[in-house]
Every structure is written in C-alpha cells, then in structure tokens.
Amino acid sequence: MTDDEDENESEGEALAAFERLGLTTYEAKVFIGLHRIGSGTARDVSQVVDVPRSQVYGVAERLEERGLLEVQQSNPIRYRPVSTDEARELLRDRFEREQDRAFEYVETVKRESTGEETQEDIWTVRGRDQVDDRTVDILSQADERIVFGTRLPELVTDTIERTLTERAAAGVTVVVVSRTPAVRDRFADLDVVTVENLPAQRTDDQRSGRIVIADDDSILLSVVGNEGSETAIWSSGSLFASVLIQLLEASDELQLE
C-alpha cells in the first residue's frame, strides 16, 4: 500500500469517527481541512478538501455554532478551527449530554411501564467471550453462595478464577464442581473454595459447557458446539431461575452433599 493510500484510509477512518460523534461528512471534512491549513477562506478550504466552495459557508456556520471554529469578519471571511483539545472536550460534553438525555428517557419509560402480565427474563448469549463476561457478571453479584461447574479447563478463565476467589474471600460460599482433575486442581490450594468431584453416574455429555448458580436465583447453563462455539441461557432474579436451580440440585445432575 502506498503512502497516499495509507493517508486516504486513515482520513476515511477519521471521517467515519467524526460522523459517529455527530458531525456530517462535510463538517468533518471542513474541520480536518482547516487543521491542515491552519486557517483560511472558503476557497482555501475547498482546495484542500472535497467540499464545494458554495457549501463551505453553510458548513462553517454550523461548525461555528458547535464551537468548533472561529470566524474572522474580513473580506473575504476567514475561518480558524479551535484546538484539537478544545474540540475533543466539546464533542465529549455533547456526547455525554445526549447520552444522559437518551437514557433518562429510557428510565422514565421503564418506570412508567406497567401491566398485569409478567414475563420471566430468560436470555440467550452466544460466543465464548460473551459467555465469559456474563459468567463473571453473575458471579460478581453473588452475596451468599456460588456453584460453578465445568468439564472443560479452558472455560475457567483467569478472570473467572479471580472472581470466584474474590467472592469467597468476601464471605460467599463458593463450590467448584467438576469431574476433570485439571479444573479441580486450579482451586485445590485455596482454603476459601470448596472443590467437589461429581459422582460418575453416567457418561459425560460432550456438549456440556458450564453451569453457574448464584444465590439460588441466578443461573447460567451453556453448551459447546462441535466447532467449539459456546451458547448459554441465563436468568437472574426470576422464578424460572429459582425453580430450575431447585430441580437441578434435586436431581442426579448436581449432587453437592
């Protein structure tokens, strides 16, 4: 790739980023162009960026309203961009205001939402990293007890191991269950974590992934596909979660006594 191609690609990425921050393509081009030349007239700007001279005036006016450039009332009119630090702060403030406005409305709608029917919150998450993140989230919110089980050592990430250890140190009862020695060995030297070997009453399901139980009302169950992809269902703070946990612990699938 030539230097010109590198520059064009970098500029394209910068333009796309400015657009995500709320600027139009022309606004982003004019702002970048002014930083390239320092200051200049509409004609100067149109010569360095792909914006018609007739459009530069309106675009510059909008940028001035945003606080992103200054106008010198001369003949012809000259424009100068604010510093990159100032522009960054202005765009950050605007983003945060818009974010607050959007989520305040969502919170209002959520509070106003009423109805006689209820729906249990049962969610599906796909992908190893996404399941890892949801597992850590459920573990981190446990206040009383945790059961974590898997047959696959690779599903015990460093973050999950650290979270289990931290919750145990905080007084949460933590039990790790697995038929796999490599999984049990990771916690064998930790006094704060109880390690259990599930009774070998049946052949391991080669699709089973992991099970996470927290405080008797949060659960995650996952399966692993032939190609190694992981899919999980999870529920937290729901009747579904509580009932499923009771069923699992009453069955032969999860014996902790």
Automatic annotation (TrEMBL):
Q: Which domain of life is it from?
A: Archaea
Please list the residue ranges annotated as the Transcription regulator TrmB N-terminal domain.
20-84
What name appears for this protein in its UniProt entry? Sugar-specific transcriptional regulator TrmB
What is the organism of origin for this protein? Natrinema hispanicum
